[in-house]
Amino acid sequence: MAFTYLDNNAGAGLAEGVLDAMLPYLQQQQGNPSSSHRFGRFAHSALDKARQQVANLVNADPSQVIFTSGGTEANNQAIAGVAELFHDGKVLVSAIEHPAMLEPAQRLTRHGFEFELIPVNPAGIVEADTLTDMIDDTTRLVSVMWANNETGVIQDIPTLASICKQKGVPFLCDAVQAAGKLELDFNASGVDMMTLSAHKFGGPKGIGALIVSPDLEWPSYILGGGQEDDKRSGTENVAAIVGFGAAAEYVTSHLAEYQQHCQQLREALEKRLHDIPGVTIFAEQSQRLPNTVFFALQGFDSDTMLMALDKQGFAVSSGSACGTGRQTPSHVLKAMEIDDLTALGAVRVSFSLQNTVEQVEQLATALAKEAERFNHLMNR
Ligand SMILES: Cc1ncc(COP(=O)(O)O)c(C=O)c1O
């Protein structure tokens, strides 16, 4: 049986050339980038190159890129700065953030801060007026993600960032799902801090970055040997960083092709979904990532559907990877006022350049058969 991987928002495979770029740093190039001998200098220059490649991906300056162990650490580092800089006040976090943002922000309440969720409208969008009304003199940080990992909904980040700029509040953006899928311009966006994760777009797992605007002084979170310009201590994971850089360069030069290809797959799947009775496609009218389709089939719970599809060789997800296995409706769908019964049936399909229209047609046929089988049972 052929297996079809359609869960690229949880983790995409390594992009072309990434493994080859990494291998020397796992084998003969064992130098520590902090060492001054030639092996150290060689490793250090590999970091410099990767930093430039990652900066190019999002139009930032390499000096603004701080490598971290992934998106989760980058989000935690950004949030932890609030407790370091202030004694009180509040943080505003969109209701649809990944738990890697929500949980550290909520943790601030233990240190005397208030934590408020910024609601989204039923289309999954943070409205500018809502954010404007929520910011006051005690707001220390605002956090809104660029694109949602479940629905794929894209926010109007430059507008939200400019509201924060006017009010003098730092704006943090989790761009983990947007990077490599959309054209991002850190410098033009007005964002003060942005977080990235390599494994979402063709780099290895366990490496990411926090990008900080030069206008913002933000404290370090992990202290020690002073690596990363004293902004994130710990010996750098050179091979992973090199892989991150190589993946960033690959997706930068393949972005148009990726978008066109994924959009074609998305349209093919959605066209077929429309023919299946009882299907809801979430946020269908919103601007979404080209590679993401989030939908529910009436009468199914997502775990049953995931298992039925797994048996037929399709790997899909019920939403955020960390939420898999939990039988609670997605907080993202709840924030969009989707009823619990529909939300419990949510299935996410996320494509990559490796997927084909044929695979999408096969998946749609499998879904249609499951729906037919279910209707047949119900009508017996
Ligand atoms: C939007 C978003 N933010 C953060 C993360 C966490 O990133 P990482 O897996 O690199 O820790 C994820 C992972 O699913 C994500 O989708």
TrEMBL record:
A Pfam short name: Aminotran_5
Swiss-Prot/TrEMBL catalytic activity: (sulfur carrier)-H + L-cysteine = (sulfur carrier)-SH + L-alanine
Keywords: Aminotransferase, Iron, Iron-sulfur, Metal-binding, Nitrogen fixation, Pyridoxal phosphate, Transferase
Residue stretches making up the Aminotransferase class V domain: 4-363
InterPro entries in UniProt: Aminotrans_V_dom, Aminotrans_V_PyrdxlP_BS, Cysteine_dSase, PyrdxlP-dep_Trfase, PyrdxlP-dep_Trfase_major, PyrdxlP-dep_Trfase_small
Cofactor(s) listed: pyridoxal 5'-phosphate
EC numbers on record: 2.8.1.7
MF term (GO), any: transaminase activity
EC class of the enzyme, as a word: transferase
Assigned protein family: Belongs to the class-V pyridoxal-phosphate-dependent aminotransferase family. NifS/IscS subfamily.
Chain's role: Catalyzes the removal of elemental sulfur atoms from cysteine to produce alanine. Seems to participate in the biosynthesis of the nitrogenase metalloclusters by providing the inorganic sulfur required for the Fe-S core formation.
Descriptive protein name: cysteine desulfurase
